[in-house]
Every structure is written in C-alpha cells, then in structure tokens.
Design a protein that fits this description.
This protein is α+β, with helices and mostly antiparallel strands. It contains three helices and nine strands. It is globular and about 45 Å long.
Length: 175
C-alpha cells in the first residue's frame, strides 16, 4: 500500500504575520504514496482525517487557526513555501505528504500542469482561512493554542510516526 517514508521535520517561527505553531513540528513524509497515489484520500479518511478535497494549493500565504491540515500530492510536483515569506521552500512530488500544524503558513510558488493534492483535517474539522491580518492576531494565537494534538497519523493511523513526533509537544513546545 505505502512504503516506509523518508521523514523530515522542522518548525517555523512566528514571523509577526504568520504565527506558525510553536508546539508541533511540521512533518513531511517523502514518497510514501509514490506507487499508489490513488490511496492517499482513502488512507487519510480511514485514519480519521476527513472533510477531504482534491485541488491545488493557494498561491498566497495562508493558514488555519482552528485545525491541523494534511496535504498529499496525488499527481505532479510543486514548490511550496511553508512558514511565511522567510519560511522553508519545499519541493514536493507525487506520493509526498505534509502535515501542517494549526497556524502554519503555506503557499504554492510553482507547480507542474498536472499538480493536484488531497487535503484533509482531523475529525473532519472545517478549516477557517487566515492570511496574516494583524488586526486579528491575538485571537488567532489564542485559537491555535486551543487545537489539540492529532489523535491519529493521517497515513499510518493509531501508531504512526506523527504521534511520536507530537507526543512531547503538547504543552509548551517539543522537548
């Protein structure tokens, strides 16, 4: 079904516009669905990450304060920026999965013509959409802190690596 992924983790700091998430790291599973990209959405849904959709990634910085988000590349490739203007640039391709903690900024910089992703949210949450408006910053920071750790890994379920990476990050950041 899926292969053992190369796992990358990193965190992005609050840049004054995009809050990002100080508790949970961003998780990137490289090439986990390379041979079976059609299994991305069923796997997410099976593991409780629902309210799924298939489309692209917005070409402007945005984030969600009320839920985490998982993005699985169903076809093509793209360059995305994670964390705001000074954030990480990631090259993603078919079969890659990115788990974005609540508050993590993301933007598509470029893409191949066939690029599409599956997006989903833990427990079928409906995400809000924030663009870094400083007028609602205090409320955004408060909302992000209220989002609990995910109960399951969107790819591997109840015993997935995400749970290990996030288990020590529940209060004030990772140990």
């Amino acid at each position: 079904m899926y292969v053992k992924p190369d796992i990358q983790t990193f965190q992005c700091k609050d840049d004054g516009k995009i809050p990002n998430n100080g508790r949970f790291p961003i998780i990137v599973y490289k090439q986990v669905f390379t041979n079976t990209p059609s299994e991305i959405e069923p796997a997410f849904n099976r593991h409780g990450w629902t309210n799924s959709w298939v489309n692209g990634i917005f070409d402007y910085h945005h984030y969600h304060t009320n839920t985490h988000e998982v993005l699985g590349v169903r076809s093509g490739d793209a360059v995305v920026q994670i964390g705001g203007e000074q954030g990480e640039r990631l090259e993603i391709q078919t079969g890659d999965v990115i788990v974005l903690p609540a508050g993590t900024g993301h933007k598509r910089l470029s893409q191949s013509p066939d690029f599409s992703v599956v997006g989903a949210y833990p427990n079928g949450q409906s995400p809000n959409l924030k663009k870094g408006d400083t007028g609602s910053r205090a409320q955004s920071l408060s909302e992000i802190k209220q989002v609990p750790a995910a109960e399951t890994d969107p790819v591997f379920g109840e015993r997935g690596p995400l749970l290990d990476y996030w288990k020590d990050c529940k209060e004030d950041g990772c140990d």
